[in-house]
Amino acid sequence: MKETILDVLMFLFENYLPDEFVDSSNQPALSEELTQAGFEAADVRRAFAWIDALAEQPQGSLKLGASNALRLYTAEETDKLSTECRGFLLYLEQLGLLDAEHRETVIERLMALKTSVDLERVKWVCLLVMLNQPDAEQAIGHLEEMVYCDGQFLH
């Protein structure tokens, strides 16, 4: 079974409450359930490491320029994130669903994935990042709709 870290994360989100899989004391039991569900133990470990790294991100520590500043992507980021993916992040910022600090967290978490990144994966990572943020219910609701909606969003 060829699964990726994000596949494990998506499975966790769809089958457990976020508090259940973010709580590190639940990780041994969840790891066992995930391997029984067919996920490779190495991918499960990497998925929990990804979650732990997200939880360890300091809040409000990023010093950013003016809110109208343009984000320039590094060569490594443009290699991994297509124009469509970068455009979607900008679209979320313009909607007010993602601020510059959370955008940087999303980009950092996308770059931590060892697989290619498409728009669907960007949406999932945005949702997972925002689930880790206090008072982000509105953004989470919109992102859940974007993740599960079959239609295309203009951006």
Strand content: under 5%
The quaternary organization reads as single chain
Assign the structural class, choosing from mainly alpha, mainly beta, alpha/beta, alpha+beta, or little secondary structure: mainly alpha
Helix-strand pattern: HHHHHHHHH
Estimated helix fraction: 55-70%
Strands, count: 0
Mean pLDDT score, rounded? 85
Task: Give the CA-CA distance, first to last residue.
Answer: 34 Å
Shape: globular
Largest sheet: none
- What's the number of structural domains? 2
Offer a few descriptive terms.
0% strand, 63% helix, 2 domains, 155 residues, 9 helices, mainly alpha
Give your account of this protein's structure.
The model has no long low-confidence stretch (mean pLDDT 85). The chain is globular, with a radius of gyration of 16 Å. It has nine helices and no strands. Helix 3 (27-36) packs antiparallel against helix 4 (41-55) and helix 8 packs antiparallel against helix 9. 63% of the residues lie in helices and 0% in strands. It has helices spanning 5-15, 18-22, 27-36, 41-55, 75-80, 83-95, 100-112, 119-131, 137-148. The chain is mainly alpha-helical and 155 residues long. It has two domains: 1-56, no CATH class; 68-155, no CATH class.
